[in-house]
């Protein structure tokens, strides 16, 4: 008697083999037994769970709604390249495996109660799972995670993951929590992909920059943007109200750093950082700029200056050795002292002085 889906199946663990010629190897990985189900979804779930514990996965090959469904090994068929040659090297798992199952609603004359075990029999009819081809031409997989379909999350896990992601929990932490709760085979890559899917869903057709501007308008952020005559965004300045209030209290020292073109839209991020009396730093404001030139820095610094009251203009501004930024600071903050960052000074010393010394020195 086969146990229902909510009961753990008694299935043998994976066996590791060594193969010299997989093309000539035929192995009989245990197919699911004959069984009855109350609907096609339960049938497919049972077949997938069985295959997961026996070293293979199934995919729906073709079906007729309300009549039958055919399941094949996920390594069936041959790979057909429809995209043409690509620079990225890739391989395929398809090896022409002929393993197949059929799920169908049989006629009453086709029923043999001695051969078919019953699961969730209902009055409205049932589905029967029958193996058609039980031979595989490949060894069992060593872990279920190599099969994409076994890495999918169920509905309960998806709800849990979505809630954790909205709470800003990292994918690796979520993965550890899922592993501690049950027998999941998902990977961090799947969680990152699902996070991207949620982001696209939440943006509702908007681009990432459009979505960012919408969030800034709906939240407690001060922001401004510049758009050129072609409708392209050239500057996007934003600062949180709490950071501004903290900057009014700790306005003596400002650190400025420009992260080079690392965003999707190839816009440098201009990061303005404040420093408290205890030496701790906090993000004061941000600005995406089209170009790291005089005009770009001047626009960003002018927006920053508008956040401060006249008596609270920064007295010291720390920066790296950027000529355009230095010129912009002298223009916008003429009374402020600008110094170079010691980290950049040390880095340049090491980089430029080491070539004058031998390795033994």
Automatic annotation (TrEMBL):
It holds the Pfam family MULE. This is MULE transposase domain-containing protein. Residues 253-348 form the MULE transposase domain.
């Amino acid at each position: 008697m086969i146990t229902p889906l909510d009961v753990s199946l008694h299935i043998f663990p994976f066996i590791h083999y060594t193969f010299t010629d997989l093309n000539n190897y035929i192995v009989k990985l245990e197919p699911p037994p004959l069984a009855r189900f109350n609907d096609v979804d339960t049938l497919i779930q049972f077949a997938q769970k069985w295959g997961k514990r026996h070293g293979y996965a199934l995919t729906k090959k073709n079906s007729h709604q309300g009549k039958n469904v055919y399941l094949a090994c996920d390594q069936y068929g041959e790979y057909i390249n429809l995209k043409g040659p690509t620079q990225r090297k890739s391989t395929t798992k398809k090896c022409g495996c002929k393993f197949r199952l059929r799920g169908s609603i049989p006629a009453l004359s086709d029923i043999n109660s001695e051969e078919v075990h019953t699961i969730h029999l209902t009055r409205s009819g049932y589905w029967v799972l029958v193996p058609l081809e039980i031979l595989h031409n490949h060894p069992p997989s060593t872990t279920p995670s190599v099969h994409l379909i076994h890495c999918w999350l169920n509905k309960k896990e998806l709800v849990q993951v979505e809630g954790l992601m909205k709470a800003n929990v990292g994918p690796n932490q979520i993965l550890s929590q899922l592993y501690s709760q049950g027998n999941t085979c998902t990977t961090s890559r799947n969680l990152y992909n699902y996070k991207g899917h949620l982001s696209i869903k939440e943006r509702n057709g908007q681009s990432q920059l459009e979505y960012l501007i919408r969030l800034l308008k709906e939240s407690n952020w001060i922001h401004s943007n510049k758009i050129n005559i072609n409708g392209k965004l050239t500057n996007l300045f934003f600062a949180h109200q709490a950071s501004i209030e903290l900057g009014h209290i700790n306005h003596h020292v400002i650190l400025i750093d420009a992260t080079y073109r690392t965003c999707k839209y190839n816009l440098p991020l201009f990061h303005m950082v404040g420093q408290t009396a205890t030496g701790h730093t906090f993000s004061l404001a941000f600005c995406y700029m089209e170009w790291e030139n005089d005009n770009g820095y001047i626009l960003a610094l002018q927006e920053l200056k508008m956040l401060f009251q006249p008596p609270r203009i920064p007295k010291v501004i720390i920066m790296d050795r950027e000529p355009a930024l230095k010129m912009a600071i002298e223009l916008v903050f003429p009374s402020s002292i600008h110094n170079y960052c010691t980290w950049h000074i040390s880095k340049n010393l090491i980089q430029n002085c080491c070539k004058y010394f031998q390795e033994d020195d």
